[in-house]
Design goal:
Elements (H helix, E strand, L loop, with lengths): L1 H19 L5 E8 L2 E9 L4 E10 L16 E11 L2 H6 L9 E11 L15 E15 L3 E15 L12 H4 L3 E15 L1
Antiparallel strand pairs: 1-2, 1-8, 2-3, 3-4, 4-5, 5-6, 6-7, 7-8
Length: 196
């Protein structure tokens, strides 16, 4: 009977410890990297699932040929990204940090570049909007108390909305005017940030 009671207490203890390992309830932060600056929030949906929402201004390296010859441009971006942090319990068991959502993740990054404005774009080039959906693998780590860094890589799909932004006069062929551009797009980021 003592052994059974001991196993029950041990099981309750392990279960209580496992429940402590979770993504943060809510994290606000600001990040910068080679291609822009972003303000974001990650909100807990479950112990290992967080919803990241983000607004920023960035250079889009895989923007496609609709901005040919534009050089370095910056444009606004709105992103929503469910993230599954799949190794928090393992990191905790190995004595590694899990605070500030320090762990490896899989996500579905969905970003929208509206056609509001584009910095450093010549006046004669028409602004376009696009939507991308990119499955991503990444890591996030905490540095000190409030700093984090993260990196991610993925390959996804983008739709560039030309129809709403161009007039038929921009095209020799009206069939081209009627079509949006669909393209595969790579994704790579390396960011450092501050969490509040």
């Amino acid at each position: 009977m003592k052994k059974i009671l001991g196993f029950i207490i041990l099981g309750l203890n392990l279960n209580a410890n496992a429940q402590d390992v979770s993504v943060e309830k809510s994290i606000f932060g600001i990040q910068t990297g080679f291609s822009g600056i972003w303000i974001n929030n990650e909100s807990r949906l479950s112990n290992s699932l967080a919803l990241r929402s983000e607004i920023g201004i960035e250079n889009d390296f895989a923007v496609g040929d609709h901005y040919n010859g534009a050089g370095f441009i910056l444009q606004p971006v709105l992103t929503i990204e469910p993230r599954y942090y799949y190794n928090l319990e393992k990191r905790n068991a190995n004595g590694k940090k899990t605070s500030k959502n320090s762990g490896n993740y899989l996500s579905l990054k969905t970003s929208y570049h509206p056609d509001w404005f584009v910095i450093n774009l010549d006046d004669y080039i028409t602004k376009t909007a696009d939507l991308s959906i990119i499955p991503t693998w990444g890591i996030r780590r905490q540095i000190g108390n409030n700093f984090t860094y993260e990196t991610g890589i993925g390959l996804g799909y983008r739709i560039v909305y030309l129809k709403a932004n161009y007039t038929a006069a921009n095209f020799q062929n009206t069939d081209e005017f009627a079509q949006n551009k669909n393209q595969y797009t790579p994704y790579l980021h390396l960011r450092i940030g501050y969490t509040f």
